[in-house]
Amino acid sequence: MVTLPPADLVKDHFARRGYRRFDLLGEGMEGVVFALGGGHVGKLWFRRQPAELRVVKDFYEHLGSQDLPFAVPRMVEVDEVRGHGVTIENELPGRNLKEAVTAGAVSVDTARTCMLTVVTALAKTAGGESARRLTVLDEPAPMWLGRHTWAGALRDLVDRRVAAFHPTLRGAVDGFDAKVARVRHLIEGLPPSHTVTVHGDLVRENVLVTPAGEPAALLDWGFLSTEAVPAFEASIAAGVFDMYGPAARALDDELVETLCGLFGHSRHQLLFYRAVYALLTSNAYDADGRDGHFAWCAAALNRPDITDALCSDW
C-alpha cells in the first residue's frame, strides 16, 4: 500500500506555483492527476522519484520529436512532496476511448480503426537512448540496462518476472515450465530487428479521442514503455483492446489478423509475444495473483493457439 502525502500539502505545492485549481481528474497506473488550469495538470506519482522522472521527462521530449499524429505528454516541472515525485504537465485534449464507446459516442468499429491508427503511428517511430533508460512494471532498474539487443533485454526481464512469480503461475498454467522453456528458446532465436518506441499498454482508457473518434492524445506511458520491435506493441494492442467484454476474443482475433496483414507479422509471432506479455505482467497488480489481470494472463498462457505458437519455430 502506497502512503501518499495529504491532499492539502499537494494542493499547497501547486498553489505556490500560481495554480488556483486543484480538481481531481483521475487515478492511473502510476499516479493521481489533478486539473490545475492554464492548460496544465499536476501529477502525484506513486513510486517514481524526481531523478527517475527526469528520465521520463527526457523520454517525453523524445516522443514529442517523433511527428506523431496525436498529442503526447510533456513535463513542465519535476519536483517532490514528502518523498513522492510531483510533476506539472501539459493538459492533453480529448475524451478517453473507453468512455466514448460506453456512452455510444464512438462505435466499436471506429474505436478499432482509431487503435490501428495509433499502432501504425508508433510503428514509424525511432527508438532511442531515452526509451532504453526507462524502467518498466515495478522493476528497480531500466529494462535495457547492460544489454544492447531487444532479445537480450527481453530475456533478462522474462527471467526476472518468472523467478519472482513462478509459484502462482505454475499453479494456474498447464505445463508452465515447458512453456517458459519454449519462450526462452524463441527469444534466443530472435534475429536482430528494427526497433521502435512502444507504449506497451494501449488499453482504451489510455487513448484520448476527438468527437469523431480519431486519436487526439496518448497518455499513461511508463507501464511497459520501452524500445522494442513493432510486433510486441501490435500483439499487446490486439489483446488489451477489449480484455473482458463478451466479444473480447473475437475482437482480439480480428485485430491480430488485421495487424498481420498491415505489417507482415505472422500470427505465431504475435501469439508468441502475447505469451511474453502474460509472463511479464501477470502479477503486475497483485503479487499473489488474485485479480482479473492475473486470470486473463493465465488464460492466455493456456490458450491452445498460443501453446501451438510456442511449440512452433516460426
From TrEMBL:
Q: Which UniProt keywords apply?
A: Transferase
- S-adenosyl-L-methionine among keywords: no
Return the InterPro entries for the record: Aminoglycoside_PTrfase, Kinase-like_dom_sf
Cleavable signal peptide: none
Q: Name one Pfam family in it.
A: APH
The entry lists its GO molecular-function terms as:
transferase activity
Name the domain of life: Bacteria
Q: Does the keyword Transferase apply?
A: yes
Give the transmembrane region(s).
none
Q: What start-end ranges are recorded for coiled-coil regions in this protein?
A: none
Q: Which intervals hold domain Aminoglycoside phosphotransferase?
A: 26-266
The protein, known as: Phosphotransferase enzyme family protein
Q: Which organism is it from?
A: Micromonospora eburnea
